[in-house]
Design goal:
Strand content: under 5%
Number of helices: 9
Number of strands: 2
Mean pLDDT: 79
Order of helices and strands: HHEEHHHHHHH
Structural class: mainly alpha
Largest sheet: 2 strands, antiparallel
């Protein structure tokens, strides 16, 4: 008992104040058994993260990378030899290294398959292509003919007829090429398809230039004319398919045929042989071999220029 002051064992309301009990005993540890964990984080907050920053990765591994394409640590390695990646090889109408390759057998097979699937239309168009110029010459007559006295006479009307027939023959060539391009595009041409030429003026102009060049070759011998005919074979094709002007089309044809001489020359020899065989039965076989030749050569043009070829 104390006199004056505050007695810690004395309850202010009277009676004894018992000392607080140690819930964990004298050693400061919980008695045997387990106790439930605290019920959730403190109110109004969250448990702080472990000391040191981020949570540790799962045992025995690491966190997976995020989804998507990301460069590796430090970036992608440079190409062999250093520097930038080289650009793809240029293809200026030539097979060359890394360019498209032409198979002669595949070209002829392609021509045959496309022809037989649309044979009626092709045979009809080829017949008309042969009849129309001949019909014009027959109506207007030849520029030079024998008169009633068996003397040679010059006919102005006949000369005009020849000019008209030649110009129409260039348009007919363009129409046949238009049909072959349609086949290679994967669309069977109807009769009206052959007339879908928007640049007839350029077709006629290119045909005249090629015709003059070939005629000059014939003044010397057949060989120069054949060479010129080979080099400028695709002139009208470039005019119709790529809408080039006559001069640009001549340059493109020359570039294509010279840079792919071996494959195109081999194809030309094979197609000439096919047409020789087709001409044996009174020329009737040309109704078949002619379209095959045209489609096969157009297929070769599309392959070597890297443009569309339908299966």
């Amino acid at each position: 008992m104390t006199t004056g002051g505050y007695d810690p064992n004395q309850n202010p309301e009277g009676g004894k104040q018992f000392p607080p009990q140690d819930p964990y005993g004298q050693q400061g540890t919980p008695p045997p058994g387990s106790y439930p964990p605290p019920a959730g984080p403190p109110q109004g907050g969250s448990y702080p993260p472990p000391q040191g920053g981020n949570f540790p990765p799962p045992q025995g591994g690491s966190y997976p990378p995020p989804s998507g394409n990301y460069p590796p640590p430090g970036g992608y390695p440079p190409p062999p030899g250093g520097g930038n990646f080289p650009p793809p090889p240029a293809n200026d109408y030539g097979s060359g290294f890394g360019g498209p390759q032409l198979s002669v057998g595949a070209a002829i097979t392609y021509g045959w398959n496309k022809f037989k699937d649309n044979a009626l239309v092709w045979v009809g168009v080829v017949i008309l292509a042969g009849i129309i110029p001949s019909l014009i010459l027959w109506i207007l007559g030849a520029p030079i003919a024998l008169d009633d006295n068996d003397q040679l006479s010059y006919s102005v009307v006949g000369t005009i007829g020849v000019i008209i027939a030649v110009l129409i023959s260039y348009v007919i060539q363009g129409a046949l090429i238009r049909g072959a391009l349609s086949e290679v595009d994967g669309t069977k041409p109807a009769f009206g398809t052959f007339l879908q030429i928007s640049n007839i003026g350029a077709v006629i102009g290119a045909g005249l230039l090629v015709g003059v060049a070939t005629s000059i070759g014939f003044l010397f011998c057949y060989l120069p004319a054949l060479v010129i005919g080979y080099l400028l074979f695709y002139t009208l094709t470039f005019v119709i398919d790529q809408n080039q002007n006559p001069i640009a089309a001549i340059k493109s044809s020359f570039s294509l045929t010279t840079k792919n001489f071996s494959s195109l020359a081999l194809l030309a020899v094979a197609l000439i042989g096919i047409n020789i065989v087709g001409a044996i039965p009174a020329g009737l076989g040309l109704l078949v071999t002619g379209p095959i030749t045209l489609i096969a050569s157009t297929y070769a043009y599309r392959v070597l220029t890297g443009r569309q070829v339908a299966p």
